[in-house]
């Protein structure tokens, strides 16, 4: 009788062991193979050993899962089981997610709707700072490109007729948006028998109109017939936000004949 009772108890113990679900270390591995996991078979039957499939995963699989690499933050979130795009980090494509790219290295894929800050510092982007390419001058003897620091513009005029005492434009330069140094000079040429007595030169954004003092050069003298003079316009700084025409304006006071002028004008970008 004792033997029969012992056999029954042993059988019940074995059955209880086979049905144990907690802790996981006591799960019976019989019938399983390496790499399998305990899978639910539904609410009415016991779980069973089986392989985990990737069916139901949408988007491009990350390389770690046998794919070619996620191509967006939302796809990576799906691959990593993180759900749909989130907005906690103010991104328009979801939270920052590490991705395995085609080179099998980690990278970030993220679009921000607002500019982030790092320890109180604002990073560079084209919306809040000039491109770094425009802040470095050339060092190889070439001319700086348009929009770059050191960009230069020149203009010239020749044989411009003068009417005594009347301001006239000798030449002009149209500046693009930026901070510019502008300067120039005028050479007065008397006709036969002409004598100069007054010369005035300046730079201004108003045509045939002199700048106001002290941004103007003037020279008065008792001229000698047939003797020309040169006069330099004071350099001026023009900081403009749109295309702006700057004129080199000159006036000659003379008598005894006709007169003309020639000139050179220069502009160089500071910023």
Topology:
Elements lengths: L1 H17 L18 E3 L8 E3 L22 H7 L18 E3 L5 E3 L43 E10 L6 E8 L2 E13 L4 E10 L11 E5 L8 E12 L3 E12 L3 E11 L2
Antiparallel strand pairs: 1-2, 3-4, 5-12, 6-11, 7-10, 7-12, 8-9, 8-11
Could you characterize what this model shows?
By secondary structure, the chain is mainly beta. Among the domains are: 57-123, no CATH class; 152-269, Jelly Rolls (Sandwich), CATH 2.60.120. The protein is built from two helices and twelve strands; from the N terminus they run αββαββββββββββ.
Summarize the structure.
This protein has 271 residues and is mostly beta strands.
Please list the strands of the largest sheet in the order they lie side by side.
Answer: 5-12-7-10
Q: Which structural class should the secondary elements be placed in?
A: mainly beta
- What share of the residues does DSSP label as strand, in percent? 25-35%
Element-level helix/strand string: HEEHEEEEEEEEEE
Q: Which CATH class of the domain at 152-269? A: Mainly Beta
Q: What is the β-strand count? A: 12
Distance, first to last CA: 106 Å
Radius of gyration: 42 Å
Give the low-confidence spans.
Answer: 16-20, 61-66, 85-100
CATH topology of the domain at 152-269: Jelly Rolls
Task: Give the overall average pLDDT.
Answer: 77
- CATH arch. level architecture of the domain at 152-269: Sandwich
Number of helices in the DSSP assignment: 2
How can the largest sheet be summarized? 4 strands, antiparallel
Helix content: under 10%
**Shape annotation:** rod-shaped
* Quaternary assembly: single chain
């Amino acid at each position: 009788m004792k033997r029969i009772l012992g056999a029954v108890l042993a059988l019940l113990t074995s059955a209880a062991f086979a049905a144990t679900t907690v802790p996981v270390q006591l799960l019976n591995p019989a019938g399983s193979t390496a790499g399998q996991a305990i899978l639910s078979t539904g609410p009415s039957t016991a779980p069973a050993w089986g392989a985990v499939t990737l069916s139901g995963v949408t988007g491009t699989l990350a390389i770690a899962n046998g794919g070619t690499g996620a191509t967006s933050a939302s796809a990576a979130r799906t691959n990593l089981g993180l759900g749909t795009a989130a907005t906690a980090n103010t991104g328009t494509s979801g939270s920052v997610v590490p991705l395995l790219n085609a080179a099998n290295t980690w990278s970030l894929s993220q679009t921000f709707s607002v500019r982030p800050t790092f320890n109180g510092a604002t990073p560079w982007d084209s919306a809040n700072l000039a491109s770094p390419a425009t802040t470095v001058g050339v060092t190889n003897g070439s001319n700086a490109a348009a929009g770059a620091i050191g960009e230069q513009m020149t203009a010239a005029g020749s044989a411009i007729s003068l009417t005594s005492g009347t301001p006239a434009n000798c030449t002009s330069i149209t500046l693009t948006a930026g901070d510019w140094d502008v300067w120039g000079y005028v050479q007065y040429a008397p006709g036969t028998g002409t004598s100069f007595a007054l010369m005035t030169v300046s730079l201004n954004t108003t045509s045939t109109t002199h700048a106001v003092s002290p941004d103007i050069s003037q020279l008065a003298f008792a001229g000698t017939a047939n003797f020309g003079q040169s006069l330099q316009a004071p350099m001026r700084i023009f900081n403009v936000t749109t295309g702006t025409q700057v004129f080199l304006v000159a006036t000659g006071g003379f008598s005894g004949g006709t007169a003309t002028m020639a000139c050179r004008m220069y502009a160089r970008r500071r910023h």
